[in-house]
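Re-running the complex after MR caught last week's input typo. The corrected sequence lines follow. Everything else is unchanged.
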Amino acid sequence: MANGILVFAEHRAGAFGKTTFEAMAAGQQLGAALGQPVTAVVLGTDAALAQEIAGYKLDKVVSVENALLSDYTPDGYADALEQAIKTLAPQFVLMPHTYLVRDCAPKLAARFGRDVISDCVRASVADDAVTFARRIFLGKIDADVVPVGEPPIFATVQSGAYRAEQAERGTATVETMPVEVGVVRMKPEAPFQEVKQAVDLTKADVIVAVGRGIKSQENLALVQGLADALGAELAASRPICDAGWLPIDRQIGSSGQTVAPKLYIALGISGAIQHLVGMKNASTIVAVNKDPEAPIFDIADYGIVGDLFEVVPVLTEEIKRLKG
Amino acid sequence: MKIIVLMKQVANKDAILRINKDATWIEEGDLSYEVNESDGYALEEALRLKEKHGGEVVVCSMGPQRVKAVIKDALARGADRAIHVVGDELTRLAPLPAARALAEAIRAEQADLIMTGLQSDDNGYGQTGVIVAELLGLPHATIVIELDASDDKLRVKRELENGWYQWYEMPRPALLTIQSGISQIRYATLKGIMAAKKKEIREVAPTSDMTSGAPDQRITKIYFPQKTKQTQFLGDGDAKAGAAQLAEKLRTEARVF
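Corrected-run output:
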């Protein structure tokens, strides 16, 4: 009988990220609500990393080991996790919704005849039944999702949905589990960063950011005028940089820069999660968007529902006037 | 080289979404649709590979007849032929049944490469491509931002988080999920649109056992997310008045200048 919560403790180059502890917090809360034990699983070549996780309130930490697990590959990780899950027989497998997990979790779940309830923002328990909530339509709508069928049930936890500090400390025993890894077909090279970025948006006090609502590259001049009036840096959401209208070092979000300025003005940005994670910690957030349901308004202090081409000229002139 | 591109039709990103009476899905009656953004980039990358190395690009899309719009657009841009997996509810399938239907539709094609976007802009599961690879026994790479498929080799640059990247080498055939922005997407030419009219679109019906089995996740309710902040909405529909109020508030409340 499947029982317990298995938390996948992801590490990169031997370091656990914040998202691992967020997933652990989610697992501990789910375990407490269901009265089920929580186990963490760490993949690697030896138990050294698992020891780092043993300082948390867990039933145990399982160090899943094979020489082929020194570098991440989807083939290697899927083989290793498949065996660990078959041996441990958990009811739930919780993982952080990282790029690594997005790469291997669907493959893993498919081997159990399942898919993943991915990118969850909440999990609630009523009468021992778990309902997950996940964002759909680029963050515009939430969906309550229930798992159907036999465990294991796979779910991934959105970055920032739980707080890493909520992962409870304690002591856990470490078990080692040697596993077989079959043929690994992909050969990874060393991870690298692109050449140092020319623009450091993290230093900016004020950022004026544009999204798809700007419609064309020519219209950027209008927004640059506002940025100049405010002494702000110009930034953009991903589609603007994808289109080549602004260089990639002005991109804010999960694949660009993460900023926390005093003021962030989002113009024509709907607010997909990939963008929000890069700017939600700004002290004051202003959003201008034609769509009143745009998710950017969920985190905005000030909002104007309307056309940025009407708002920006007036705002620029008013700011110039008030600044005198 | 034969390349299959899996493309999904999704609600237009600018569409105002309304929730249906049962709160089980959005109102689809008057919705406008477009191609899923990253799938468009997957097609562009496939067309560039074909131009460089020769071969054939086959588009595969799934859903009701309305998805023909995506297929015809892809053919106009330069895809050679298409497979349409026809069924009314297919765009809403959970990732595993969706991947089963797609894998069966393309299995016999024996493609050298299968490409698709990294996730859909509607349900956003981000899994279908990877599961198709697993079902077909192929290696995969996700969130690919650059690739080299010359000769027999396949080298792909994967995007990691926070500005990190990693190159992978892998054998072909393989499945790749493509990140938006990998290249600039071409427009369909008039000549392309005319040529597309003569290209083959093969319709297939998914076998019932692929899609009739119980899904392993079910949406029970959808709703607009709860706001985490109290937003002060300014202007009350008058954008210019809102802008003037905003300037004042930025000075007096937020004190940013």
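None of the earlier attempt is carried over here. The longest helix of chain B spans residues 37-53. DSSP finds seven helices and 13 strands in chain B.
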